[in-house]
Amino acid sequence: MQSVRPPRLMRIIPYRLFMEILGMFLMFQIGMTLLLIFIGLLQAALEGLPRSHIPVLIPCVLPFAQTFATPFSVLFTAVTVYSRMSMSREIIALQTSGISAVRVIIPCLLLGLGTSFYTLWMADLNTSWGMAQTQRVFLSAFQEIMYHRLRTEKGMTFERDNLKLTVSSVEGKTLRGVIVTRINEDNANSLSVIAEEAMIEVGRPEDLLDAASERDNAMGSLYSKEEYRDGVLKITFFGVQFTSTESRGTIKSRQVVLLPLANLPYFQSGGGKSPSRIAISELPKFIEQRQQNIHQLTEDMRLAAVEQLIFGDFCNLGSDSWQQRHKQIQAWENDISRAKMEPYRRWARGFSCFCFAIVGAPLAAWRGKYGALQLIALALLPVVGFYYPMEMLTTNFGKSGTLAPIGLWFPNVVLILLGLYLLRRAA
Q1: Is the pLDDT of residue 388 over 80?
Q2: Rounded CA gap, 236 and 178, in Å?
């Protein structure tokens, strides 16, 4: 006798299953988001961010936390729900009722698809707004952060510029027994400043770059005025002795060191000029601006070359100014390549939610007897061992121009193919 399949079962089971998946996802999402926010705030506190600034940092790090919490919440939800159903033999019972395992897994895939667009939005919001707001919070408290670290560590190192600042003690806002050293990679133009006392100020260029400070700036030969546009770290020394590769001497009044904030930790983005710090909707405008800059500079170079040829100024045709112009054009062309790559990278990262769902759900339905914890560890192998390392590798190749932007989808395609294989085995 042919079995009759209850028509309402086909509608009730997926709905109840989707509600269970949604509830489990919200539980993981809230827990992982709070954990990542806590880790971010703890790191900021360890860096010396004042307690009054920490609550302001919460909405700034929320998009970053959501970008990573959402894909893993989808993965953990898929494994937890379907491993429970497999161990309790619910999937087998549904199959005997005429409901295939694929139909049972579809609610999880829909969750993964929906959260992919949400993750894409959060990733875009983090790069275009969250990171910039985080920098502003640190900028407003950077002076206190430096004093905190100098009190606790008796020194601070800015590895990017081979710059080291050490003090023997800190009394209020006064640093005592100060030594500043900077050595270039080629050991040329090295500088050491030893002072009895020093004070630190952080602020805008218009507030700190006065004529006297620029005249006394010991770093004047290392940075241009344009590099200070995003903010200035000003260290004023009193009772100074300095040594360099060219000279040695003593200054009894004062000496000033001016550092661009764009070259220091938390401020290494150089403002919002990097394509990785621009919203997807603004990237076409960014590319157009860079193309106009290249066109304008190329025209200026042509006119300058013609003028030098007419007047017989052949020596200047190979001068450093021409090399700097070529480097500038190359830098703008690199910005254009990265801007064209950026949408592919963010879409691929956003759709990691769907990739994790299509791997985790059929794996748990197929091998549910192993238990949730073992399946989570097993599902994390392709994610941690392959997806994120391969994503970093393809991103680096994309930035260097050796990989087409579409190649950034390679990790996603591999996980989807793996998921389709597991889906077939689960069915």
Answers
A1: yes
A2: 11
